[in-house]
């Protein structure tokens, strides 16, 4: 890999990690429109086997907005261990670790989630966009969904 290609890949890694962090930021600040703008127009979000599959930016906006309005009084998402792999110069995948805390409007005990986000990204004219997000759980405590996609470990 040439020096300029290596520098570009480092810049792309930081840009992709920035999209992941922005997703958490906008979710926690109850900004579903800004969150939806991080996705490609035909993106798919899969939060688990008992959650509605969200297909397309509009569905992602509506689904996240509804959850933020009716289910979550507050959230705090923390990501780490971001691993990014490039399929091509303009396509990448990533896995990152997630700890997420949820306070519910219902007054139920605060929910905790230890999980992974599995992403796919594409570069468009405006930068990197999420094309797929799959949530896989390692464990939960007082979380609002009993069934989640597993991380692959029994």
Would you kindly provide a brief summary of this structure?
By secondary structure, the chain is of the alpha/beta class. It has helices at residues 3-28, 32-36, 57-70; strands at 39-46, 54-55, 72-88, 91-104, 111-124, 127-141, 149-150.
Walk me through what this model shows:
- The protein has one domain: Nuclear Transport Factor 2, Chain: A, CATH 3.10.450.
- The mean pLDDT is 96.
- Strands 1, 2, 3, 4, 5, 6 and 7 form a seven-stranded mixed β-sheet that branches.
- The chain is built from three helices and seven strands, in the order ααββαβββββ.
- Helices cover 29% and strands 47% of the residues.
- It has helices at 3-28, 32-36, 57-70; strands at 39-46, 54-55, 72-88, 91-104, 111-124, 127-141, 149-150.
- The chain has 154 residues and is of the alpha/beta class.
